[in-house]
Amino acid sequence: MEHADSNLHSWVEVHSQAGMKPVNDILAAHYNNEEIGMTTLKKQLEDHVKAINHFDTRRRYGPDGHNDRSLWVLACMDERLPVDKALGIHADSPVGGGDAHLFRNAGGIVTDDAIRSAMLTCNFFGTKEIVIVQHTQCGMLSANAADLEQAFRDKGIDPDAIAVDPSLPELTLKKGAFAKWIGMMDEVDRACLKTIEAFKNHPLIPDDVVISGWIWEVETSRLRAPSLDAGRMSKNIDVTSTQFGVKGKQPPRWD
Known about the structure:
By secondary structure, this protein is α/β, with parallel strands linked by helices. Helices cover 36% and strands 12% of the residues. It has two domains: 2-62, no CATH class; 66-144 and 184-244, Carbonic anhydrase (Beta-carbonic Anhydrase, Chain A, 3-Layer(aba) Sandwich). The chain has a five-stranded mixed β-sheet with strand order 2-1-3-4-5.
């Protein structure tokens, strides 16, 4: 029996990561059936195939086809931010882990497209929680956005005369807003707190959605809550643009 249980645990772990039911659900079903003498390989395989089919077609079911944790994650695109490791979920590696809808952008910040994606998953695909993950040593701390804008102008590109989304020319930036649109940060903790606030207050995000934000410390491989406490600066951890040698304040997006 001990050997059989070991094999079952291995089978459950592999198949749950491939998009099956959560591990605990499969184990509970197995042991409940075993107690009343109903467990068969046929039943396990039928459940297995049914779970695969539901995973493959879950977008057809709207809110009833939610991901395994009813979760949407907004994270920085940086390759040093291991979302699965940081949050203890299966969403990023391998892709299709099933636990969450995962959205990455530069900085893990609120943008029009982040709002669009969160709006869809929360209102139409059964998502009940949003988790935001930013990180130390972020490239969004490494330059002043005004300097980045000037770099484009030096190439002969006028940021005031471009479409940020060619497929939607109605979506435009006001003159002089390009540097602010880039979203560079003075402090990662402050940007994270402002991103949390933006989602909590946005009319397209339902009020009952649970929203939290976190900072992944690249230097220590540790997850922590965002904080403006000066104590976080005492360690050899880069959380501000000043630590990158950036001069001047960023355009006022995260104030």
